[in-house]
Amino acid sequence: MLKPIGLTEGHYECRSLDETLPIFTDLLALEVVERKDDGAVLKHPNTAWHLVVHEGGPNAANKPHTNHYGFRVSSSREIPKAYEYLTDHKDQYKIKSVTKPHEAHFAYSIYFKEPGGNDLEIEYYNPAAVKQGRKIAAPHWTDPLPEEKFPGKGYVPQAMTHGTLNCDDKEVNDRFVKEVLGLEIIGGGRTSTYISHPSTPWYIVVLPTTRREYLTAANRKAIGINELWDLEENGRTHFIFSDISKNWWEVTS
Ligand SMILES: [Fe+2]
């Protein structure tokens, strides 16, 4: 079993960095940490998780809705404001659609389609849900980002809280997450699993899906590894593998 010391970055493929980076910086309050020709590393000031964005070119596929990243605001009033702002600026940012604010049990959110083929979520999550055992409601920031840092929009994304993956078989995937990846299951139910690392609040929602759209080509069995890439050393030591549910992970020093 791996003994990871953190869940440190998420990866993301878009079509054009010039189109998608402003979505993250202008609409979701991320900062560009590093920019290369074919990719960039982004980070929210309140979240140590890095988002590594790859430029896949014009033919990069649309990703399933169930492979989105989510960003949290601190009050439910900001969700309709975010809806309004995104709707008003659809053309400027080439946003394809924005869903109307949708209320679930403890959550209130909108989703939008960015031009790079991905869905993104802006959510409010009621902190009181912690009392009901929902660990994902725990604070994701200590010092809220002040409005001056993200002015004129009516909402302030306070953290990048989650990413979303699919699996074929929830029970098998849950065992893999705990017994091979060494991550913790912090919640979920019959139709979802919330996984996280104990040192940080961000999490990954894994949804069992019958008709999968795999994110990349995939096809070693023993412990359920589908594909295992070579170990690489270039200032850090790392390797990439595709897991029992054909999701891709990187293990890095
Ligand atoms: Fe979400």
Tally of separate helices: 4
CATH superfamily of the domain at 61-213: 2,3-Dihydroxybiphenyl 1,2-Dioxygenase, domain 1
What share of residues are in beta strands?
25-35%
Rg, alpha carbons: 18 Å
Helix content: 10-25%
Mean pLDDT across every amino acid position:
93
Bound compounds: fe (ii) ion
CATH fold name of the domain at 61-213:
2,3-Dihydroxybiphenyl 1,2-Dioxygenase, domain 1
Describe this entry's structure for a reader.
With 253 residues, this protein is α+β, with helices and mostly antiparallel strands. The chain has a domain at 61-213: 2,3-Dihydroxybiphenyl 1,2-Dioxygenase, domain 1 (Roll), CATH 3.10.180. Helix content is 15%, strand content 34%. The protein has 4 helices and 17 strands. It has helices at residues 17-28, 78-88, 90-93, 170-179, and strands at 9-14, 31-35, 39-43, 50-55, 69-73, 97-98, 102-103, 107-114, 118-125, 159-167, 184-188, 193-196, 203-208, 227-228, 232-233, 237-242, 248-252. The strands form 3 sheets. Strands 5, 6, 7, 8, 9, 10, 11, 12 and 13 form a 9-stranded mixed beta sheet that branches. A hairpin with a 4-residue loop joins strand 11 (184-188) and strand 12 (193-196). The radius of gyration is 18 Å and the shape is globular. The mean pLDDT is 93. Fe (ii) ion binds next to strand 10.
